[in-house]
Amino acid sequence: MLLTTSASISFAADKIDVLQYTRAGGLGDRMVTYIADALGDQFGERIVVDNCAAAVQYLKKAKNPVITAMPFESMAKQNDGSKNACAINKKYFVEMYAASPWSVCHRSDNAAATIQALRNGDVRVGVWQNGFYGPRFVKFMEAINPNAKVIPYKKAKMYRAALVAGEIDFSISTVAKDGESCPVILNDTIVGDAQMTAAELEPNAPYNVLGYSYFFAGANLKGTDVPAIVFASDAWKNRRDNRYNVFMTDLSRNKQWKSLK
Amino acid sequence: MFGLETIVVFFTAIVCGMFSGVMPGVGGMAVMLMAYPFLIDMQPHNILIFYVVMVSIDQFFGGITAIVFGVPGSSSAVPSAMEGHTLFKNGHSSEAIMFSAIGSWFTSLFGVLLIIAMIPLLFMIYKVWNSTVQMAIFGFTSIAIIWISRNRLLVSIGLFVLGNLLGKVGYDTYTNSSFMTFDLPLLYPGLPIMPVVTTMFVIPLLLGSMRKGVKVFEFPGVTLEGYVESFRKIKKYLSTLVRAGLLGSVGGFVPGMSYGMSSILAYTVEKWVQIRKGLYRQGKGDMPSLIASEGANNAGTFTQLVPLLFLGIPITVSEALIYNILDTRGYPVTIEWFQSTFTMIIVFFLISATIGLFAAGRYVNFMRVLNNLEIKWVYLGVVLFLFWAIYYVGNQTLAGLDHLSITAMLLPVGMLFYKMDTMPLIYGFILHDKLVEIAIRVWIMYT
Fold it and tell me: What is the CATH superfamily name and number for domain A2-99+212-260?
């Protein structure tokens, strides 16, 4: 199997490889899985690298057609102002992919996790420990409820388990999991089972409209319109993450690129 | 329900488990990813069978490679390489292999029985597993690793800190900052585990072994009679098996720990117990510590499935992959469906553990072709094989030369450590991310 993998890296000229740099089973994995499924017979193989920095290095070295989905924050500068190791050059930017607003969620069976508790209670809110979004979640929650403690987790599966275990009362995530409800959405409008927008909850809270977004990045695609293939596919139409929707595709590629900078 | 596909899956999983166990750097997760194109077309129960059989067999074969050659196939096999290979060199090769394999089989059974007995209490125990408890366990393990090392205390602390620094190298998306990358693109992704374990653990271990005067490779092999005899004698390690089974089982099913960490914990506890009893033989290899490490691994292999089967929560990357495949294919991913597979999983797990027990013995006897070869040539072969494996695994992501360059950079440092026990460094490297993450969380909760 390994030999097949190695050989096909060199010879799969008509195929498009899909690059995965996030943990398997997570949102990033699902985003690239939609691409792989949409490609059908054109799908080459799944190349797995350790992280987004390794993905960027792969794009630079790849000789085969390869595509991936990268998150918006990979283009943000590092905290010290230097260039992000995960930032890509314009030539690897393909098009915007999808975006979803963040929501405040809790276990559906947790009767104590009310909006009142979110505003005034001594609650713990689990968030994704991310250099870009983490500080924004903290500022948002400080404005919503100064008594709340924002607890960072590296992986979504960790705060799912923490919600089940009762270690945290709420989590901020983009897609509700089984057994979870998301009453507050950080968006202009109500989506899904949300009861109110974050702006309705606290109009002055910073980042009360905040989303998570992906763009397509690829190399050697030679004019193949992968986004069009993905958006027309059943894999995309039947996606589990149906809060993620296509965005900014009405703008030119240049304008889309500028929005990332 | 079971048909030709199940039979094919079962035997393929055995072969894949052997491959991932023997091949350094190719763990169960890598095999799952390589098998991904085939898994997505399988019946859902066969995906679970593939995984449980593959990881079970992997543990038996990985342990043997660690004992015979001092090469840990994964981070969880580092203690086996340390204790097992030392026993191997000191003429206890057959006992080390048979006791660790039989001990692993017993702890596999222990894990199954424990979970069956505890089904009514599982959810309650799961709720106890919070960040504070995780911090206590990870903190205890880190301190114990430093404390029980044969180095002087300050040296072990220094090695642990160095390991943490090596673990921090690279660009970190969680802090949006780089550490010691020197603007070199090859360092952005961080230091891969294989070059670090090879240069900082395997090479110092092998150099240290050569210093101690073992000249030729000698391995009498294992026999069926030897297995039977070892089965009879295993009861003298009963308390070790219970400790390892318990720590491995509990460690396996709590999120964020996994059977790799529970193996480290079981080894650390066992070594500490043996030192306190005055039975630990420094530099000679310690059978109970080896059995504990290998046994905890196998117990955790089964119990790690429990959160998926009973709560629908995948706690390892491989399980998340399985969950994702089932979900994207529209298969049932309800807790009821997972629970309905429980008996099937137990049966396949115990069958594969039994096959692993004996198949590993057959495999290890092939090693006798190396008998009477000068040990330096065997070790040279091991090191060259590792360099090739580093290149090969790295090159799957077009980073083979990068990984070899990192190996070359670390090699001189590793060679300086040939008189030391470098396990604190390796564990500092492996545990770094988790330790920091949990410490931050606990700090926020209590301040």
Answer: Bordetella uptake gene, domain 1 (3.40.190.150)
Residue B75 DSSP symbol = G
Is there a contact between B192 and A29 if contact means CB atoms under 8 Å apart?
Answer: no
Q: Do B314 and A157 touch (CB under 8 A)?
A: yes
Q: In what order do the strands lie in the sheet with A16-20?
A: A43-48, A16-20, A66-71, A211-219, A93-101, A245-246
Contact B85, B46 (CB under 8 A): no
Q: How many CB atoms lie within 10 A of CB B230?
A: 19
Largest CA distance in chain A: 60
Residue of A32, A41, A51, A125 to mutate when probing chain B, most B C-beta within 10 A: A51
Does B92 or B130 have the greater pLDDT score?
Answer: B92
ipTM of the complex: 0.77
Quick one: CATH architecture of A103-201? Answer: 3-Layer(aba) Sandwich (3.40)
Chain B residues lying within 8 Å of A57, measured CB to CB: 185-186, 188-189, 398-399, 402
Domain extents in chain A: 2-99+212-260, 103-201
pLDDT tens per residue across span B326-384: 766 666 666 677 777 888 888 999 999 999 888 888 888 888 888 888 888 988 998 99
Q: Which residues of A touch B126 (CB under 8 A)?
A: 164-165
Percent of chain A past pLDDT 90, that is, above it, reads: 60
d(CA B299, CA B248): 5
pTM for this structure? 0.79
Residue B48 near residue B9, CB atoms below 8 Å:
no
Q: What is the DSSP string of B83-132?
A: IIHHHIIIIIHHHHHHHHHHHHHHHHHHHHHHHHHHGGGHHHHHHH--HH
CA A172, CA B337: separation in Å to the nearest integer?
Answer: 28
Half-sphere exposure of A79 (CA within 13 A, CB side): 15
